[in-house]
C-alpha cells in the first residue's frame, strides 16, 4: 500500500494563515475589547440604579477615579467640594454613592440600621486572613465577637487601668522637661503618636513599646505602619488588586522587603509581649489592662473565646488605637496654637482649677478631674468635629430588600457611605461658621442646639459598629492635654506655617513643630 504524504503548505497558504492570525489579534480582538469596554461604560453610566446621581464623569464608569483621588491623599476635601457642588448624594464609583444629608449617618450607621453590613473595602484589612471585630463583615459573627471583647473597653474598666495611662503621661512630661531645659523644639506630631502607641501597648498587649523613653521611632515601626496603611487603604478600594500588589514577585522588591522586615519585627514584638502577658496571667500583681478582661472571658468560655481570638483583637487594637488618637491630639493642639485666644482661655481654666485646688500640679491630671473642665471638653469635641481622625467613607452594603435614605430609595446590595469630615461641616447643622474652630459653640448654644449638633457628630462612627475604643481615646486625651499645658507653654515654632496632612483613611498630619517653656516644676523630673 502506498502511503499518502500530506501536501506541503504552499507559501501562499502560510501567508494566508499569518494574515488571519494577524487580523484576529491586532484588528478584531482590539475592536471587540474596545466595544466591551465602551458598552460596559455605557451600561454603568446610564443603566445603573445609581445613574441618576451626579458626580465626576469618570467616577460613574470606573472605580479608578476614587482610587486615584484617594491616592492623592485629600479625599475628604474632594468630597466636601463635590457635595457643596452637587448636593447631598454624589456617585463616587459605578457601584457606590456617598451621602452627606445630615440624617443619612443615622439611617446607615444608627442603632436601627440592622440590615446594613460592612462593604468589601474592609476585607483588605484582615491580616493573615483572620478577621477581628473591626473587619468582620458578617453581622451575626460580629455581634458575638463584640460581646466577648466588649468588657475590656467599658469606661469602668478603663478607669481601673488608668494608672497605665498615667505612667505613659509621666514619661512624656519628663522628656518634655528635658527638651525644654535643653532649649530644643519638638515635633509634637511624633511625640503624641509615641504617647498613644505606648499607651495602647500597655493596655492591649501588656507592655509599652518604649517610644517615649527612647524619644524616637524604634525600628521605624511607626513609619512602617503608616506606610502599610497608606498602601492598604487604596488597595482596599479595588480588592481584586490585592493579589497583584502582594505576591511572590513584588515581595522580592528591595523596598517591599525592607518594609516587610520592619513589619515582621513589629509583629514579633507584639506576639512576644502577648505570650509574656498570657504567662503572667496567674501572677500576683494587681496591674490591670485589657488582657485582664479578655483572659477572664477566655476562662469562662474557652471554646468560644480562644487565646487566638485574643491575640487577633490585641494586635488589631494597636492599629485601631494609636494613629486615631494621635490625630485627634494633634488636631487639639494645632487648632489651639493657631487660635492663641482659645489657647489662653483653656490655660486660664487649668490655672483656675489649680488655684482652687481641684488639680494638684504634682502628677498627671486624673480623668475624673479633667471632666470638671468644661472648656477642655468643648475644645476636644470641636477639634474632632473639624478634624475627625477617620475621614474616609465607612462603606456599607444596603440591606437586600432595599432602603430609603435621605428621601431616596436604594435597592439592596448597593454601596453607600458617609464621610465624617463632610457631615461635621454641614452648615445646616453646625451653622455658617461650620468651617471655623469654635469650642464656644458647645458651651454657649442652647441645650436643644447642642443636642442637635451632638446627634450629628460622627467621629467615632455609629450604631453596632461604633468605635469600641472611644473611652480609651477620651481618657487618654483628656488626661494629657491639661497635663502638658499645666507644665509647659507651647508655641508654634513657625506660626505662619500650616501643618501637612495626608488622608489614608486615617487623616494624619505632620510638621507641627513647637517650642516648650516650662512653667511649673515637674516633681518626677527634677
Ligand atoms: C480618637 C480616637 C479614635 C477615633 C476617632 C476612632 C474612630 C473610629 C471609627 C470612626 C470607627 C468606625 C469605623 C467604621 O465603621 O468603619 C472605629 C471603629 C473601631 N475602633 Fe476606633 N477610634 C479611635 C480610637 C480607638 C481606640 C483607642 C481603639 C482601641 C483600642 C479603637 C478600636 C476600634 C475598634 C475595635 C473598632 C471596630 C468596632 C466595630 O466594628 O465593632 N479605636 N473607630
Automatic annotation (TrEMBL):
<keyword id="KW-0812">Transmembrane</keyword>
<comment type="similarity">
    <text>Belongs to the cytochrome P450 family.</text>
</comment>
<dbReference type="Pfam" id="PF00067">
    <property type="entry name" value="p450"/>
</dbReference>
<dbReference type="InterPro" id="IPR036396">
    <property type="entry name" value="Cyt_P450_sf"/>
</dbReference>
<dbReference type="InterPro" id="IPR017972">
    <property type="entry name" value="Cyt_P450_CS"/>
</dbReference>
<dbReference type="InterPro" id="IPR002401">
    <property type="entry name" value="Cyt_P450_E_grp-I"/>
</dbReference>
<keyword id="KW-0349">Heme</keyword>
<keyword id="KW-1133">Transmembrane helix</keyword>
<dbReference type="InterPro" id="IPR001128">
    <property type="entry name" value="Cyt_P450"/>
</dbReference>
<keyword id="KW-0560">Oxidoreductase</keyword>
<dbReference type="InterPro" id="IPR050121">
    <property type="entry name" value="Cytochrome_P450_monoxygenase"/>
</dbReference>
<keyword id="KW-0472">Membrane</keyword>
<keyword id="KW-0503">Monooxygenase</keyword>
<protein>
    <recommendedName>
        <fullName>Cytochrome P450</fullName>
    </recommendedName>
</protein>
<feature type="transmembrane region" description="Helical">
    <location>
        <begin position="20"/>
        <end position="42"/>
    </location>
</feature>
<keyword id="KW-0408">Iron</keyword>
<keyword id="KW-0479">Metal-binding</keyword>
